[in-house]
Design brief:
The protein is α+β, with helices and mostly antiparallel strands and about 425 residues long. It folds into two domains: about 270 residues, 3-Layer(aba) Sandwich (Rossmann fold), CATH 3.40.50; about 100 residues, no CATH class. The chain is built from ten helices and 18 strands. The strands form four sheets. The chain has a seven-stranded antiparallel beta sheet with strand order 2-1-6-7-8-9-10, with helices on one face. It has a six-stranded mixed beta sheet with strand order 11-15-16-5-17-18, with helices on both faces. A hairpin with a 5-residue loop joins strand 17 and strand 18. Helix 4 packs across helix 8. It holds the Pfam family AAA_21. Keywords: ATP-binding, Nucleotide-binding. GO terms for molecular function: ATP binding; ATP hydrolysis activity.
Length: about 425
């Protein structure tokens, strides 16, 4: 579970910005939205609000890049490849300075604090610390090519520093060289899901994999029925590419052609009730998901597997455009699922949204709602709703739209343009 994530000098983020999953002393939803982990009481979800171009996506991109670099830097980059961490470019001091990333998290009962700094050319600093009981101990420290490694705390790591490229992380190289502690950390990040809510097709295979597993098939079908989409069941069939290619988004056509290159591939068939002239149910009608169902239904189906695996396997899930193409009540139901006292899970959810109906005190605590906006220098800043100290009975959604919490656009009268 995540305690906090910090980022500095990345895309629109100039100064250190902290995403904190530490709960505050407020008394709301303590039995459901908060999980006790070690000595920390951690929030099960955070929701980011802000107008377009405020930097919400850049915050999620920072977490996604941090994860990607840990998982891929040792294997995906060549020695001369640039590190794709774009610094804040609206200030002459930061555009040549390194970007900073750090996360504090639990794996099992061990608490780690891991971070790094990097320019486009190299990793300039890297560190891993672990907490046993109360005290924090350094596992390794790196400044450019100088390494300090406590071999008792990370057995097998000594010598890997000589095999670590300047544009790769030591923790990633250690994982490749079978250092067990590094592999454990690597796997935790590899299991994290980072989803863009408008590009959900790539996650459909996870749902299909669960659907073909007898252990989860019934759960997936119940998930669909509970969403009130008019769907009674779902099956997987073989189908030819030409039967659905016209209905595939343009940017995904090449992917589909690759999947269907052997002639046939899996397609999703949805079952709906069929009625006679007296409106008596007589049969089931079947519709191809890609061809006949709505965009919202497609998105919900594509991400069911991600929701289920995150909860069952205690994964961290990040979703940008969380509410895109979904009805408010369905989005609320998903948010409620990740904050339910009935669901015993250590999964955590981080999302960016626009739908103000999610600002619902029946679902979220005040410290789970964060507002994002840019200051006059173009730098993204974030503040938690709890810092405004609103009363419990305050209408959070109305106050937000009234501008009391920031994070909203100031839109002039567009009619005057005409």
């Amino acid at each position: 579970m995540i305690v906090f994530f910090k980022v500095r000098n990345f895309e629109s983020i100039k100064d250190t910005l902290t995403l904190s999953f530490l709960s505050t002393s407020i008394s709301e939803h303590n039995d459901s939205n908060v999980v006790l982990k070690g000595r920390d009481e951690l929030l099960r979800s955070l929701v980011l609000y802000g107008h377009n171009a405020s930097g919400k996506s850049n915050i999620l991109d920072a977490v996604a890049f941090y994860r990607w670099f840990i998982v891929n830097s040792a294997t995906e980059l060549q020695s001369n490849d640039e590190i794709e961490a774009d610094p804040f470019r609206l200030n002459s001091e930061t555009e040549k300075a390194p970007s900073f990333f750090e996360m504090c998290f639990y794996i099992g009962n061990v608490k780690y604090r891991y971070g790094f700094e990097s320019t486009k050319e190299r990793v300039t600093k890297e560190w891993l610390l672990e907490t046993k009981k109360i005290k924090e101990y350094p596992v390794f420290l790196r400044i450019n090519d100088d390494f300090q490694i406590d071999e008792k705390r990370i057995p097998g790591a000594l010598g890997v520093e000589k095999r670590t490229r300047k544009n790769a992380l030591f923790i990633s190289a250690c994982s490749q060289w079978n250092v067990k502690k590094a592999q454990k950390i690597f796997k935790w990040f590899d299991d994290t899901y980072t989803v863009h809510g408008l590009m959900d097709n790539s996650y459909r295979d996870i749902t299909l994999e669960l659907l073909e597993n007898k252990k989860y098939s019934r759960l997936i079908n119940r998930f669909l029925r509970k969403a009130d989409l008019g769907i009674n069941g779902v099956n997987i069939i073989d189908i030819k590419l030409e039967d659905i290619i016209d209905f595939v988004p343009e940017e995904l056509k090449d992917d589909y052609k690759e999947k269907f290159k052997d002639g046939n591939n899996r397609a999703v068939l949805m079952s709906h009730d069929k009625f006679d002239k007296n409106n008596k149910k007589i049969d089931q009608a079947h519709f191809l998901l890609e061809k006949h169902e709505s965009e919202g239904t497609k998105k919900f189906f594509n991400l069911i597997g991600v929701y289920v695996k995150a909860i069952i396997e205690n994964r961290f899930l990040i979703i940008d455009e969380f509410d895109a193409r979904l009805h408010t009540l369905l989005t609320k139901a998903i948010l409620k699922l990740f904050n339910s006292s009935k669901v015993k899970s250590e999964s955590q959810l981080l999302v960016a949204a626009h739908d103000t109906a999610l600002l619902d005190k029946r679902i979220l605590r005040r410290d789970q709602i964060c507002f994002v906006e840019k200051n006059k220098y173009g730098s993204t800043e974030m503040i938690s709703l709890v810092e405004y100290k609103p009363r419990k009975e305050s209408p959070f959604d109305r106050n937000y739209l009234d501008g009391k919490y920031g994070g909203i656009p100031i839109i002039e009268d567009l009619e005057e343009l005409f």
